Amino acid sequence: MLQAAILYTWIFGTNILNSPEALLFAPSDLGVLPQLPRDDKGPVFAEPWQAQAFALAIRLSAQGYFSWREWADTLGLELADAAERGEADDGSAYYERWLAALEKLVTAKGLTDVATLFERKEAWADAYRHTPHGKPVQLRPGFRIDYKYRQSPLHEITRADGVRKQIRIQDGHLFVCNGCCCGRTEKGFPALPLDDFKRQWKQRGIRRRFHLTISGCLGPCPLANVVLLEFHGRSLWFHSINQPEDVNVIYDYVERMLVAGTIMDVPEVLKSRLFIRYLK
Fold it and tell me: What is the dihedral of CA 256, 107, 126, 56, to 10 degrees?
């Protein structure tokens, strides 16, 4: 683990850091790295984690896990993809792209896998949420999420402009109506447990298999609050989803289907709120 980077100067309101440790194993041809933030003394870092990410890539290359040219090419592709997505080109997100490129390369080389990386990120996010302000952030002992059903496969698609992109083929999708009537208590409709839908979707760790969309009007308005559950190509419409307990039941149902890998019978408590929306 690197020591804290050394303060070097102050530019445009941002701490710019030089880390001797980060440069210890740096190859002489740093110039092949596209858009590398640097000054006359070498690379500069706005935060200590950037120096750590920089040093990690250098150390892995020095140990022979990938060549420096291979690393430069991978980073270049990641920066080009970011530019194509319209992300800012002011250097502020350079090391976020560096980290994304590093994750892709180490998984491609079999040094780790996507599930392990995602699990570790969630563990640190959990640690951050449970650490009192002003205290060092530490992983909680025993914290672990089972990701056996939480990674959906990637599929490559060619866009109309000829560019090939990867997307995740997910198991399902939950649409929560937040339109003209659902949740509009001023119109006499029940309150919508919107925060519960968002919070549980994140906390359950199912985002890479199952998507959530807070939508405009889904209709039919007289049945507010309405949600649409899509799973393995089947559409299930529910009305009167008004309480946090209803949200628990829906996500529990989704997780059971994710584990089973197939559509399952609707829970008894939801059957009375299942309705037909379209002609067959």
Answer: 180
Q: Look at 114 and 239; give whichever has higher pLDDT.
A: 239
Dihedral sign for Cα 235, 241, 243, 245, please: negative
Residues forming beta bridges with residue 175, ordered by sequence position: 213, 228
Write the CB contacts of 32 (distance below 8 Å, at least 6 apart in sequence): 68, 69, 72
Q: What's the domain range around 235?
A: 172-275
H/E element holding 117? helix 114-129
In CATH, what number is assigned to the domain containing residue 234? 3.40.30
Count of domains observed in the chain: 2
In a domain, 213, yes or no: yes
pLDDT in tens, 196-242: 999 999 888 788 889 999 999 999 999 999 999 999 999 999 999 99
